[in-house]
Write a structure and sequence with these properties.
The chain is an all-alpha fold. It has two domains: 54 residues, no CATH class; 185 residues. The protein has seven helices and no strands. The radius of gyration is 50 Å and the shape is rod-shaped.
Length: 262
């Protein structure tokens, strides 16, 4: 009985609040009647619970969105393009810096290549002098054979001359091989220098292109420049491979020169 009375009192307060906010005269009158008779029957209470005016919707807290979601500012398409351009421009700047570092390293490799070529030329000159000395000795020996027998038989002299001639032919062949390798190395060095100059020009063009991109705010041209940089980077890697191959050739040639000295 007490529970029924408390429930009726609570519903009376709810109806009073609704009547105050909506200004419904009928609800207000019903509230007054119900307040005058709080000991209403259960049938009347069920009728009131099924009444349309009492079905007050309650906001679901589960589906409620925080106010930050309603106040969140959606960036415009122009802002998105600007942010994307700034990001790509920064990436392009970093790639150009990396390309400059690689270009400096390439310049150092070319300088080392020149030093190795100079060493190779010195070794070749030394080999030429040694070959000339051998030829002179051979001529002297040949003349001495003609003038005096030196205690050897003709067959022994012919065998010794044959051996000396074989050695001279071997030295001549090694000298020719060294000259061919030197020519190949010079050609490779010239191609590397030309490629370096071409890459330097391309870097300058890309830097100008980056400046134009920043001026015109063009996303499409920026992507094209990035592709060009990737292509240029691939070409530089190919050039580095060619330089390494040339370096290996120089090392082999120096080793051959050392053997020639021995």
């Amino acid at each position: 009985m007490v529970s029924c009375w408390m429930h009726s009192t609570t519903r009376t307060k709810a109806v009073s609040i609704k009547a105050i906010h909506t200004g419904d005269a009928r609800v207000s009158s019903v509230m007054k009647i119900f307040a005058a008779n709080p000991m209403a029957t259960p049938e009347y209470d069920r009728w009131r619970s099924q009444s349309v005016n009492d079905n007050i919707p309650i906001t679901s807290l589960r589906n409620a969105q925080p106010i930050e979601e309603h106040l969140r500012v959606v960036p415009s398409e122009l802002e998105i393009i600007k942010q994307d351009f700034a990001k790509r421009s920064s990436e392009l700047g970093k790639k150009i810096e990396q390309l400059e570092e690689e270009k400096m390293k390439l310049g150092l490799d070319v300088d080392i290549h020149k030093l190795e070529a100079q060493k190779l030329r010195k070794g070749k000159n030394k080999a030429e002098k040694y070959l000339d000395s051998l030829k002179t000795d051979y001529k002297k020996l040949h003349m001495s054979i003609r003038t005096a027998g030196l205690g050897k038989t003709s067959e022994q002299w012919r065998q010794e001359i044959k051996e000396e001639k074989t050695r001279a032919d071997q030295w001549e062949k090694k000298f020719q091989d060294a000259r061919v390798r030197e020519d190949v190395l010079k050609k490779s060095l010239l191609e590397s220098q030309n490629e370096k100059e071409r890459l330097r020009g391309r870097v300058g063009e890309l830097e100008k292109s980056l400046h134009l991109h920043r001026s015109h705010n063009s996303v499409i041209e920026l992507r094209a420049s990035q592709n060009k940089i990737e292509e240029l980077k691939g070409r530089m890697e190919e050039l580095e491979t060619a330089l390494r191959d040339s370096k290996i050739g120089v090392e082999l040639l120096e080793a051959n020169n050392e053997q020639l000295k021995e």
